[in-house]
């Protein structure tokens, strides 16, 4: 068993570029210092190169460079540095020196019993509190998001049979629609407890998850509790309660009492303490709802501008929580009295936030990871059918900035709706009820105006946040965020014999090194390529693929290249672009390399034109191996010596030798 001076773990939200760039940076920094290191990567396909107990035991220090939760308890008793993944890319030398420094605190898990020498500075964690809060919140949101999408879409589809199609007493009732509504509602009902549970898990592991789930159910409380904001508070509260209990029962040795603590003491006392607090929090919030309803009824006869601002702020305050419910239930009650005016503004304010997320990811796709972009696109459907909860993951990501941004758009939509005297006689359904609206086109226009206002603000905030974290969002990440079809592929991976440029089937990805040179041949390298525009280059690549027998339809490949650029530019920096295409007409995975005769304008991170291109061709059914090739290419491009040699090479032989060395 190899022994390492240092061990590390890296991970980012998408598990593609930054995970492996941090790995490469740490490995190169350790090599320069004459140290040995092993890096465990938490990537898109899971954990690669997991650290063994023997490797952990033999290491002198630990570096965790990750934006997601990494199990640190196994590193108990070791000097540990815990930072965001961006720090691993930016300053690997500093992190390694810090991890090996005598002054670095030894990591001790909360409530743990690992021993350190008497002269060591023992600390519970070296992770910054801000980073811990962020990773815990992201852990909850990432587990909640699929439930929001699944439940919201099913509920939206059920409305196609009518707004009241799930009500057995209504003439619109449809049994299949009622089933869709029930299934979707069940999934949406899990949203709040799952959010709380996985925030609790990130803070205090399994016991935190159990208590968080229970507290989340109290926060949900049939939809009348404290909602998703209560779930966030409850999740952290559950984790902190467990950490407190671990300290209280630290006198009981784990060896003899581990089972008693985990199965009885922590869950029973944790649910009692955290659940009681949440129960008490819910009660005054319900009383607050009743007071807000009475206030809103009195406000209806005053200025439509004031009413619109109030309704807009309330609807975007907690996205289906108690404050939102106060406005919605008031509108529903007034509908029963024949007042269709109030509900029009409420609906507009509820529809605008999810549509704003769609606009935001379209305006600034590089500021969001692939899952967030997908959620934004789905929100176009959710928002159109009055499913406000689709905006929750975006609000939870940066609540202090994003919630006010949502409030601005919702307020604008509501104000314009009230000023136009628009009436909506249905309590739900979104744009499905347009035939019932007295001014349908104007209503849609005002909602889109409000959504656009929020969308612009969200895009600006997201861009600023990504820059603040120091992550070059959209440079390598955009280049590596390939089409989702590959993730679901079932075909066997293919290894290419570069000499014959022919595929050779293999049984398992574990047999592959994913060296980019494995899918490169001299025939697929050209220099002094005549091209004046980006599209000229993409046409040339598509034609080259067909000419070299790698694909059968140049037009189809060109369209895929262009579609990929629309999603996010593959222009990187230092004059290099990595366009790639995935299509059914591509026969095998391959890499193409071009040196251009003249610089070509391309949207790049550093704003400089492109002079060289590394392109990947990906079959429609790919097992995910192309992600590895892309990741390893990204690693190469972090090496200054490689980039300089790549730009200086002027013959196919020199370029081929550069990748093969």
Reconstruct the topology from this structure:
Elements: E1 6-11, H1 17-32, E2 37-43, E3 46-48, H2 53-58, E4 61-66, E5 80-83, H3 85-90, H4 92-99, E6 106-107, E7 122-123, H5 129-158, H6 175-189, H7 191-220, H8 227-248, H9 254-299, H10 304-318, H11 322-336, H12 341-363, H13 370-384, H14 392-397, H15 399-419, H16 440-468, H17 476-480, E8 494-497, E9 502-505, E10 525-529, H18 534-547, H19 554-567, E11 576-577, E12 580-583, E13 590-600, E14 610-619, H20 625-636, H21 640-648, H22 652-660
Parallel strand pairs: 1-2, 1-4, 4-5, 6-7, 10-13, 11-14, 12-14
Antiparallel strand pairs: 2-3, 8-9, 13-14
Helix pairs in contact: 1-20, 5-6, 5-7, 5-13, 7-8, 7-9, 8-9, 9-11, 10-11, 10-12, 10-15, 11-12, 12-13, 12-15, 12-16, 15-16, 18-19
Keywords: Cell membrane, Membrane, Phosphoprotein, Phosphotransferase system, Sugar transport, Transferase, Transmembrane, Transmembrane helix, Transport
Region (Disordered): 491-515
Pfam families: PTS_EIIA_2 (PF00359), PTS_IIB (PF02302)
């Amino acid at each position: 068993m190899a022994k390492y001076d240092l061990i590390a773990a890296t991970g980012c939200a998408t598990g593609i570029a930054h995970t492996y760039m941090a790995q490469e940076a740490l490995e190169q920094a350790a090599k320069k210092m004459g140290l040995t290191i092993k890096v465990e990567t938490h990537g898109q396909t899971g954990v690669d190169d997991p650290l063994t107990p023997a490797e952990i035991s033999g290491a002198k220090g630990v570096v965790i460079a990750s934006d997601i939760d990494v199990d640190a308890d196994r590193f108990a008793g070791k000097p540990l540095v815990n930072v965001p993944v961006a720090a691993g890319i930016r300053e690997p030398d500093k992190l390694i020196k810090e991890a090996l420094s005598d002054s670095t605190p030894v990591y001790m898990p909360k409530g743990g019993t690992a021993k350190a020498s008497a002269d060591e500075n023992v600390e519970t964690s070296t992770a910054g509190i801000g980073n811990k809060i962020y990773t815990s919140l992201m852990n909850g949101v990432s587990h909640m998001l699929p439930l929001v999408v699944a439940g919201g879409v099913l509920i939206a589809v059920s409305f196609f049979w009518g707004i009241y199609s799930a009500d057995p007493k209504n003439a619109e009732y449809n049994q299949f629609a009622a089933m869709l509504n029930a299934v979707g509602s069940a999934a949406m009902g899990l949203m709040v407890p799952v959010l709380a549970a996985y925030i609790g898990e990130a803070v205090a592991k399994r016991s935190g998850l159990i208590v968080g789930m229970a507290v989340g159910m109290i926060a949900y409380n049939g939809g009348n509790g404290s909602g998703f904001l209560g779930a966030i508070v409850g999740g952290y509260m559950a984790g902190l309660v467990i950490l407190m209990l671990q300290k209280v029962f630290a006198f009981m040795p784990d060896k003899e009492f581990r089972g008693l603590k985990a199965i009885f003491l922590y869950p029973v006392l944790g649910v009692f303490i955290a659940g009681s607090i949440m129960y008490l929090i819910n009660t005054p919030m319900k009383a607050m709802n009743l007071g807000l309803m009475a206030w809103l009824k009195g406000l209806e006869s005053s200025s439509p501008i004031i009413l619109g601002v109030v309704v807009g702020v309330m609807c975007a305050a907690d996205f289906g929580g108690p404050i939102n419910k106060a406005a919605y239930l008031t509108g529903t009650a007034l509908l029963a009295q024949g007042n269709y005016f109030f509900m029009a503004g409420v609906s507009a304010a509820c529809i605008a936030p999810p549509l704003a997320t769609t606009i935001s990811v379209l305006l600034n796709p590089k500021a969001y990871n692939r899952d967030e972009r997908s959620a934004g696109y789905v929100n176009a459907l959710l928002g159109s059918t009055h499913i406000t909860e689709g905006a929750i993951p975006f609000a939870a990501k940066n609540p202090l900035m994003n919630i006010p941004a949502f409030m601005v758009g919702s307020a604008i939509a509501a104000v314009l709706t009230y000023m136009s005297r628009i009436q909506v006689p249905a309590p739900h359904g979104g744009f499905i009820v347009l035939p019932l609206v007295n001014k349908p086109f104007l209503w849609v226009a005002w909602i889109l105006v409000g959504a656009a206002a929020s969308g612009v603000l969200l895009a600006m905030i997201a861009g600023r946040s990504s820059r603040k974290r120091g992550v070059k969002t959209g440079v390598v990440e955009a280049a590596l965020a390939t089409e989702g079809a590959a993730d679901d592929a079932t075909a066997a991976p293919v290894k290419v014999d570069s000499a014959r440029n022919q595929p050779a089937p293999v049984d398992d990805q574990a047999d592959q090194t994913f060296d980019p040179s494995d899918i490169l041949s001299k025939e697929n390298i050209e220099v002094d390529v005549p091209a004046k525009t980006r599209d000229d280059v993409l046409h040339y690549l598509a034609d080259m693929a067909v000419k070299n027998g790698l694909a059968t339809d140049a037009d189809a490949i060109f369209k895929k290249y262009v579609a990929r650029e629309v999603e996010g530019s593959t222009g990187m920096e230092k004059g290099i672009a990595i366009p790639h295409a995935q299509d059914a007409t591509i026969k095998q995975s391959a890499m193409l390399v071009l040196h251009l005769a003249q610089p070509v304008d391309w949207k790049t991170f550093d704003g400089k034109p492109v002079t060289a291109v590394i392109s990947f061709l990906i079959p429609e059914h790919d097992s995910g191996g192309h992600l590895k090739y892309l990741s390893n290419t990204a690693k190469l491009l972090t090496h200054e010596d490689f980039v300089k040699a790549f730009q200086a090479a002027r013959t196919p032989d020199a370029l081929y030798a550069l990748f093969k060395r």
